[in-house]
Design brief:
With 210 residues, this protein is an alpha+beta fold. It has 2 domains: 2-136, no CATH class; 149-204, Arc Repressor Mutant, subunit A, CATH 1.10.10. It is 34% helix and 27% strand. It is built from 7 helices and 9 strands. The chain has helices at 13-18, 43-53, 83-88, 113-123, 154-165, 177-184, 188-204; strands at 2-9, 24-29, 34-39, 56-62, 65-70, 92-93, 97-100, 103-110, 128-136. Strands 1, 2, 3, 4, 5, 6, 7, 8 and 9 form a 9-stranded antiparallel β-sheet that branches. α5 (154-165) crosses α7 (188-204) and α6 (177-184) packs across α7. The two termini are 17 Å apart. The model is unreliable at 140-150 (pLDDT under 50).
Length: 210
Amino acid sequence: MHQATFRLAGGGAYAAATADADASVALWCNDHCDLLRVRGADADRALAVVDDRVGVRETATEGDSTLAVTGACLREASDGGVEDVLAAHGCLLVPPLSYRDGEKHVRVLALDPGALTDVYHDLRADYEVTVADKREVSAPEPGAPGTAAPELTARQAAVLRAAVEDGYYEFPRRASTSDLADRFGLARSTLEEHLRRAEGKLATAPAATR
């Protein structure tokens, strides 16, 4: 398979929320709403922009991250989603979308590298487009967090897997970091450090959150 990461400038609520701000947004679409992870010194300001443009229904803060559930799906808010362009060329969007420095970062997979070129040209009709990365990749395994998983230590991978299985990332949460710490026989601060390091590796891996 072939992968390209496009940086799109040219509007949108989440891109606007990170413009001229120390903030980044990762987005998972759930049709009726979006799940956001917001980080940075200006996270509160970025969330205020999102609340004004889309609406924020619920938030939860843990460490340096704020998770937020929006009041509506961004596609319904006419943000100029890229899904139709990708579908027209048989390409796949790899979540999450990410936003920083006023740009939308989109990771795309295609069987034919020519389809990525076609997507690039179509996206230029609505955005200023920069190709941040283009490469041939192995197909991701179902349920695996991209290519970042091999970079995790065994303990970080186990803690992250347990957090997902026990409902730490669900709304409302079914498990706390104290619960997870008890499960592993660790101090809460140690458990949180393992979790933060695992999340950080996934968030900054080239094939994970572009």
